[in-house]
Design goal:
Blueprint lengths: L1 H20 L2 H14 L3 H4 L4 H6 L3 H14 L8 H4 L1 H5 L4 H15 L17 H27 L11 H25 L1 H31 L8 H33 L5 H24 L5 H19 L14 H5 L20 H6 L2 H7 L14
Length: 382
């Protein structure tokens, strides 16, 4: 969320920089300078300790932990109670300490187990979650241009939106408002519920803009209808603002949601796929512009249909609110779909949880030792 706010701040500062530079070469050089400063990233930010531990890179993790202790001015000998309580409980037994040290050295000498994103194809649930979020981000950022063009199109004549700076700051203000609205929505409705809400609003705004405005346009042609062309323009701007608000929130939330349900070992790969899908959705805007807006209406219809598909597919996603981040691919597979609404008091769930399934794991072994025709509870079938 902090990165999203920083990106929105950069969008708000861009017209001011352009006005100060007055030359696109100078502006381009000014934009590139922060990226050159990012080369210092390697010396400022450490490697992810969670990723090092999840991929069994214990030697690098050990160096990083020692680096943290030195920077924090910690004494490992005096502060070892909070780090390794198992050793302090047996500090009087040198054999136990030596055994634990040997086990620790054995773990440190193990080869790293790095996982490629291609292994997601062999999973049962994880690849579906990533595909759904990829389609969701593509649709959210792709349909955003359709709403922006409807609001800033030449056919819409509104005094406030005839200025380029007014158009630009309106779009940036809508993006900032969507980021602010995302914070409380995902807290109260959850990640899946918030994403579903924003996608439903996007679909409604798109369908109303495609269907209702055409109906208003037909009635405005009759002299006795009392509807003018300005009424259609005002409805178009209203639906466009709502659509831009909801589509930007849906696309951004898809990226955040992917970071939470993708396991640590392949989190960068999953985020890369979702961000690439979002970039492809944004790439459709200049493609339509290059063709002089030919096929724009079909472009909007296709993305409107994709929003309906996304609403159905979002129900298959798990809820990650108040859940631990998955570390390995099996942990990500255990993220199963929960009911969208909490169950009522006294109502039995239809699906058992993983903890409840473990309680029945011994029934197969018990049933194997029973005589023929007997059941696990000691009875015989009818």
């Amino acid at each position: 969320m902090v990165a999203s706010f920083v990106a929105t701040a950069g969008q708000l500062l861009m017209p001011g920089l352009a006005a100060l530079c007055r030359d696109w070469q100078v502006l381009q050089a000014l934009i590139i300078c922060p990226f050159l400063l990012m080369l210092l990233y390697w010396s400022i930010f450490p490697e992810s300790l969670r990723w090092l531990m999840a991929t069994h890179q214990f030697a690098s993790a050990k160096k990083l932990i020692l680096r943290f202790t030195q920077k924090n001015r910690m004494n490992p000998e005096s502060d070892i109670k909070g780090v390794m309580p198992a050793v302090t409980s047996e500090v009087g037994d040198p054999l136990a300490i030596g055994w634990q040290e040997r086990e620790l050295e054995k773990e440190l000498s193990r080869r790293p187990k790095k996982v490629c994103i291609v292994k997601v194809a062999g999973t049962r649930n994880l690849w579906k979650n990533i595909v759904v979020l990829c389609v969701n981000s593509l649709t959210g950022f792709g349909i955003h241009h359709c709403f922006a063009r409807s609001m800033m199109g030449h056919e819409v004549k509104v005094p406030l939106l005839e200025n380029f700076y007014a158009d630009y700051y309106t779009a940036a203000g809508i993006a900032l408002a969507s980021c602010l609205a995302m914070c409380p929505v995902v807290r109260f409705l959850g990640r899946r519920g918030g994403l579903l809400l924003f996608m439903i609003v996007t679909a409604l705004a798109s369908l109303l803009q495609l269907g209702l405005l055409n109906l208003i346009g037909k009635y405005s042609q009759h002299p006795d209808s009392g509807m003018s062309e300005s009424v259609k323009d005002k409805f178009s701007i209203a639906f466009s603002i709502v659509g831009m608000f909801a589509s930007h929130a849906a696309g951004s939330l898809s990226v955040f949601f992917c970071a939470e349900i993708t396991p640590t070992v392949i989190r960068c790969g999953g985020l890369g796929l979702v961000l690439a899908s979002a970039g492809f959705g944004m790439l459709t805007a200049p493609i339509i512009e290059l063709h002089n807006q030919k096929g724009y209406f079909l472009h909007h219809i296709i993305f409107a249909c994709c929003t309906l598909i996304c609403i159905i597919c979002l129900l298959l996603l798990p809820e990650s609110r108040d859940q631990n981040l998955p570390e390995s691919i099996p942990d990500g597979e255990h993220y199963t779909r929960q009911p969208l609404l909490p169950p009522r008091r006294g109502e039995q769930p239809l699906l058992l949880t993983n903890a409840e399934l473990k309680d029945y794991s011994g029934l197969h072994a018990a049933a194997a030792g029973l005589p023929d025709g007997a059941t696990a509870n000691g009875g015989r079938p009818m």
